[in-house]
Design brief:
Layout: E1 10-12, E2 17-20, E3 23-33, E4 46-61, E5 66-72, E6 78-84, H1 100-116, E7 126-133, H2 143-155, H3 159-166, H4 172-178, E8 183-188, E9 191-196, E10 207-211, H5 218-226, H6 233-248, H7 252-270, H8 275-279, E11 287-289, E12 297-301, H9 306-312, E13 318-320, H10 321-324
Helix pairs in contact: 1-2, 1-3, 2-3, 2-4, 6-7
Length: 326
């Protein structure tokens, strides 16, 4: 076995590992990118926050042969199952047709983990894997990145390399998965630089996260951005400066000005109208897209009237800062 299963308990905070009652339990945090969307891919500094929501991966012995996988949503309902032959990771023909693409993606991730660690899953005979999301998988808080980080910890491989070899992107979400504090994330020479910071604004009770009722495919958004041939040197400089200023300010007015400046700059680069102009022109506060534009969550500055405003517009998922952020 890759890990000695025993009837004991130990906790390793750095890797979020719990071993208990013949099981291994890995946990990774979800993520939100406050600044630096798109530009982080080219080396801009980005402020990223781990969320109170995340995903578990629980490994136990199985009475069934090979690797049996089941994924549960935040309500505890099974939404995906798959059986793979060990150690070849060949797909069992019992996989439902509508889930074959998901099974192929899982198979791909596990095979890439094997490339990074040739001993991974080689000596296993029967394993039961269960994943548990603590958030709606349509929210875009890191269904894939939390899975990648959990598998990387299980396989004892570099999660950033596994992310690069599978889904690509900047991998800031992997850094959030691994950290319980806010971070400044930057790519330098294509290598991740992670700085733990203290983002704890005194106006956080005036910040809200609103789900836009649709999931955005970040890989498509990244592909579209990378097709833009503009010289991005100035973009990197300006976005990095905004990130630094946002981290320092304790003035809501200044924070809102910086958010608005950021929205205007990214809008000009990707040629998409800011979400406030698209959907919320009459909103009294400032609104900023988080991550890929036109989907997932937005950040809204406001007050106790903010939840009612968005509910009246048909947006039911509205979380306060303290409800969302670790």
């Amino acid at each position: 076995m890759d890990y000695p299963f025993c009837f004991c308990l130990f906790i390793t905070e750095k890797n979020n590992i719990i071993q208990n009652n013949n099981k291994l339990n890995f946990y990774s945090n979800g993520k939100l990118l406050i600044t630096g969307e798109y530009a982080v891919l080219d080396g801009a500094k980005a402020l990223a926050l781990p969320t109170k929501f995340g995903q578990n991966l629980i490994i136990s012995n199985s009475i069934k042969n090979n690797l049996y996988w089941e994924s549960l949503d935040y309500n505890g309902a099974v939404w995906f199952t798959c059986k793979l032959t060990l150690p070849s990771l060949q797909m069992d023909d019992s996989v439902k047709k509508k889930q074959i693409d998901i099974a192929k993606t899982l198979q791909f991730i596990l095979k890439e983990a094997q490339k990074l660690n040739p001993n991974f899953l080689v000596n296993n005979n029967s394993i039961h894997i269960k994943t548990n999301l603590t958030f709606d998988r349509n929210w875009g808080l890191g269904t894939s990145s939390t899975l990648i980080n959990n598998i990387a910890n299980w396989a004892k491989v570099d999660a950033f390399k596994l992310q690069l070899n599978t889904f690509g992107g900047s991998a800031y979400d992997i850094a959030c998965a691994q950290n319980d504090n806010s971070i400044i994330y930057q790519l330098k020479n294509n290598k991740p630089i992670v700085e733990v910071v203290n983002f704890n604004p005194n106006f956080k009770n005036q910040l809200y996260f609103v789900y836009l009722n649709k999931k955005k495919n970040s890989r498509i958004a990244i592909d579209n951005y990378q097709k833009i041939k503009n010289n991005k040197t100035e973009l990197i400089k300006i976005i990095s400066t905004i990130t630094n200023e946002i981290l320092k300010t304790n003035s809501l007015v200044e924070f809102e000005k910086l958010l608005q400046e950021h929205e205007n700059i990214i809008s000009n680069i990707i040629k998409i109208e800011p979400i406030k102009q698209q959907l919320f022109k009459d909103y009294f506060g400032v609104i900023k897209s988080l991550g890929a534009w036109e989907g997932d969550f937005i950040l809204a500055t406001g007050n106790t009237d903010t939840p009612k405003y968005f509910r009246d517009k048909g947006y039911e998922t509205i979380l306060s800062y303290d409800d969302m952020i670790l």
